Description:
Elements: E1 5-8, H1 13-25, E2 31-35, E3 49-51, H2 57-67, E4 71-74, H3 80-85, H4 87-107, E5 112-118, H5 142-161, E6 165-170, E7 172-174, H6 187-197, E8 200-203, E9 211-215, H7 216-227, E10 240-241, E11 245-247, H8 249-257, E12 264-267, H9 273-279, H10 287-293, H11 301-313
Parallel strand pairs: 1-2, 1-4, 2-3, 4-5, 5-6, 6-10, 7-9, 8-12
Antiparallel strand pairs: 9-11
Helix pairs in contact: 1-7, 2-4, 4-5, 6-8
Amino acid sequence: MQENILVFGANGQIGTELVEQLRSVYLPQNVIACDIKLPDFEHRKDGPFEECDVLQKRSLSSVFKKYKPKQVYHLAAILSATGELQPEHAWRLNMDGLLHVLELSVGFNVKKLFWPSSIAVFGPHSPKHHTPQSCVMDPTTIYGISKLAGERWCEYYNIKHRLDVRCIRYPGLMGWKAEPGGGTTDFAVHIFHSALESGLYECFLQADTEIPMMYMPDAIRAALELMNSPAENLSTRSGYNISGISFTPAMLAKEIKKHVPQFEVSYTSSDPRQAIADSWPKSIDDSLARKDWNWEPHYDLISITEDMLLNLKK
């Protein structure tokens, strides 16, 4: 009998595609999608779903008790831009939710736990180019602060409780299967929808803002590759840097215009998300992930643009 896998935050940008991929690898009935609201996606009907709030420890415990999972993916979080609008709630969800899952994973003898961190852990005094695995970290958002604290908790539970926690510091993520969740890099998805729907887009970041990004198939593959790596190969439990590509809104718009020639983009100079983006790295050094578990991205800007437009047109 296959072991059960719980995915918290299954309705989100990562969770939507992760559940689908996990159910293609494992028996669908063994991959339990969990979220605070009912799923909107048809493919969720391919396996079990539990309506669950990670802040409600008692109901969360009942899900662990019911399924006795051996793997857990904890994705539930409030992202950077949304978090700045409701910082106390963002801290509570991002921090207390993680602590509940960590504690229950120990109590129910979970074999492996995946938790996504973010490049938001870096800040104004972190190196901007080829940001290393270990450096100054002074995040300026509640999201980044909670992710940095979460990394320390994950490492603490690995050391003190021998919980096999595995973490990735994701760059900005883009994909076509689900809407982004209120992050600073949401422009990289919205721009494609606007190109096809109206041919016009007002970008909330300035044209030359360079940000590390990653296509969702690479992001999902990274999580699965890390979870399938031998524990003895892993040299950090607080969060692996991984890199996809770095580009600016203007670079992305130029690539889209090759396919949608009439597309026009304007740029605002007054959005609060600009300050968040300016505090983040421009490129990431992921040499440790490449060394420890052979990480390597597959998608570049050209292939991402082609795939996004192809699928959104459908």
